Structure prediction request, 403 residues.
Amino acid sequence: MRRGERPEVKTFTARSLSPLKTQPIVGRGALFQHCGDRDPFRRRPPDALKAGRAEGQPGENDECGPAPPRSKQGPFQSASRSGHYQGLNIFMPRVDIRALEPHSTAKATTGWLSGPLKALDDPEGVRVPSQLPPIIDAHVHLFPDRLFEAIWSWFDNYGWPIRYKLHTPQVLQFLFSRGIERVVGLLYAHKPGVARALNNFMIDVCSADSRVWGLATVFPGEEGAGAILDQAFRAGLKGVKLHCHVQCVGPDDPAMHEVYSACEEAQKTLVMHAGREPASPHYRCDAHRICSVELIEHVLRDHPRLRLCIPHLGADEFRDYERLIERYDNLWLDTTMALADYFPIPTPVRLLQARPERILYGTDFPDLPYAWDRELRKLLALGLPENDLTQILGQNAAALFDS
Ligand SMILES: [Zn+2]
Prediction:
């Protein structure tokens, strides 16, 4: 057992929980209305989705890697039968892991990832407990195969050992077969020039399974960044994911304004890893230098129409984010890895309690060093009020992304 780790919670909190209400609970001063069951991926025929793909961009007729293994059951069987899923294995340039490594001398020397972290051999549940309300995992990574493999290699070397090396079809089948209702699919461009292909990949994933709400990405400052996002939004993607550490672009970088504006105009959510942790000296820049809660406060103040979600509960500035989420109606946080009792931090329970209608349950699956349901079990063990838990597990994500 790791230093400081508490004994495993063996059982879920056995309480009767009400199902996901059709009318979401919106937060104080919520900036948007829930739109019921509208789902452009479900309503639009696949051809319409494909029509939204970028012309001249890599697509299903481009060079493809080896076909992903197909499951006997689950969403991919029907998708592959109907041919909708062909684009999943979209060509991506072979990813050299060196491109993800430092080229700058401005490296962090401290941070949660300053030394390799261990895997936890904790037991995993068979599925989510049936008494829970519908669960949306608001932070699931979905990448083309080669990019996934490069990312796993990076994590194995510099982060933590990846327990679930599953490609996108298997990621979705794994989660859905265990009772997760929906996932918010995230990816990010680690360099200019690949965002259109990544977005097309995500469009194809979403067109194959309406339980995936996919987000677009872009490399801030790349040529046509605004147009890349407009096109992705028109094709049905639900927002944007950026990763300041990997992209080496801080929230105050002038290149960000185009992204903020595109999201504001289209009323799409921006999920931006802009907290300082988990930081690694092996990122290309110092995350503690380019990210801070002060910079996020400037963004929230300057862009009141922007719906901004910060992963990892804003790690590691939990107290400051508590103040921010109380003050700003355009801020959301997701729980990703911050509740899992994996990093050497106290669980930021006060932040959950400060404004539960603004907290989304998310896991970072499949890039995890521990059991897929560890964070869920830890969350349930906190004994939050039933209504708070219902919001955190699904209602808040539904209200934020189902529009
Ligand atoms: Zn993540």
